Q: What sequence folds into this?
C-alpha cells in the first residue's frame, strides 16, 4: 500500500528555534494534512493543503504542498514548550467514496527550555 | 475537545477475551473511522462507516468487526484477543462520506487497550 516517509523521527531543539520536518511518498496525493498528537489525546489537524505548490500558515506553523504532489513540509517558527508532541503528515486515500487516512510515522518534537 | 467521545478510556483484559469499544461522533457527522495506533505499526486505518453502512476496510483483522447504529454511534468489537492487539484505538468522524474535497476528520481521545 501507499506509505508516507516522514523525517526526522525525533528532534530536540531549544526554545525559540525554528523546526522543519518533511514527508515524502512514492505516490501522488491530492491532499496533504499535518496533525499534532499530544500525550493521552487523539491527533488534531493543524494544516490542510489542497493544491500542489500551496503554502499555508496557521500561526507559527507553515506547511507546503510539494509541486510533484509527492511531498510536503512543515515548519514551526520560534518554538515554545507547548509545541511538544508528535507531528504526523497524512494523506487521504480515495477509493470510491471513502477517505481513510494514511499517516507518516511521526516526528517526536521535544523543546528544551 | 474534538466533540468525538470514546469509551472506555482504558481497558485491560486477557488473551482470548472479547471487548467492545464505543465511539460517539460529533453532532451532525455521518462518517465514523476507526484507527489503530501501535508502536511498531504506527497509525493505521481499520474501517469506515457512513450513515450505518460500511464504506471502506483497511488493515482490519478478521477477529475485529465494527458497526454503526441508527443514532450514528459506532462500536468496534475485538475478539480472541492476542498480546499484539495491545494498542491505542482511535475513532474519528467527519461530516460526509468523503466524496469531493476532503472533509476534516476529528479524532476522539482514544481507548488504550492492554492485553495481558
A:
Amino acid at each position: 500500500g501507499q506509505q508516507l516517509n516522514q523525517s526526522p523521527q525525533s528532534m530536540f531543539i531549544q526554545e525559540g528555534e525554528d523546526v522543519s520536518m518533511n514527508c515524502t511518498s512514492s505516490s501522488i496525493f491530492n491532499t496533504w494534512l499535518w496533525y499534532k498528537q499530544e500525550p493521552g489525546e487523539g491527533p488534531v489537524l493543524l494544516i490542510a493543503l489542497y493544491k500542489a505548490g500551496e503554502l499555508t500558515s496557521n500561526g507559527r506553523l507553515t506547511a507546503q504542498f510539494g509541486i510533484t504532489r509527492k511531498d510536503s513540509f512543515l515548519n514551526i517558527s520560534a518554538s515554545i514548550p507547548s509545541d511538544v508532541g508528535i507531528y504526523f503528515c497524512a494523506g487521504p486515500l480515495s477509493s470510491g467514496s471513502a477517505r481513510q487516512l494514511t499517516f507518516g510515522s511521526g516526528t517526536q518534537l521535544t523543546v528544551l527550555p | 475537545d474534538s466533540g468525538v467521545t470514546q469509551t472506555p478510556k482504558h481497558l485491560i483484559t486477557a488473551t482470548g477475551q472479547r471487548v467492545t469499544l464505543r465511539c460517539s461522533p460529533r453532532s451532525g457527522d455521518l462518517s465514523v473511522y476507526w484507527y489503530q495506533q501501535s508502536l511498531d505499526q504506527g497509525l493505521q486505518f481499520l474501517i469506515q462507516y457512513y450513515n450505518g453502512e460500511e464504506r471502506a476496510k483497511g488493515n482490519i483483522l478478521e477477529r475485529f468487526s465494527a458497526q454503526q447504529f441508527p443514532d450514528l454511534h459506532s462500536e468496534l468489537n475485538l475478539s480472541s484477543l492476542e498480546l499484539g492487539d495491545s494498542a491505542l484505538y482511535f475513532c474519528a468522524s467527519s461530516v460526509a462520506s468523503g466524496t469531493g474535497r476532503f472533509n476534516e476528520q476529528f479524532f476522539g481521545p482514544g481507548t488504550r487497550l492492554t492485553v495481558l
In short: The radius of gyration of chain A is 14 Å. The mean pLDDT of chain A is 91. The first strand of chain A starts at residue 4 and ends at 7. The interface with chain B takes residues 31, 33, 40-45, 48, 50, 88, 90, 92-106 of chain A (CB under 8 Å).
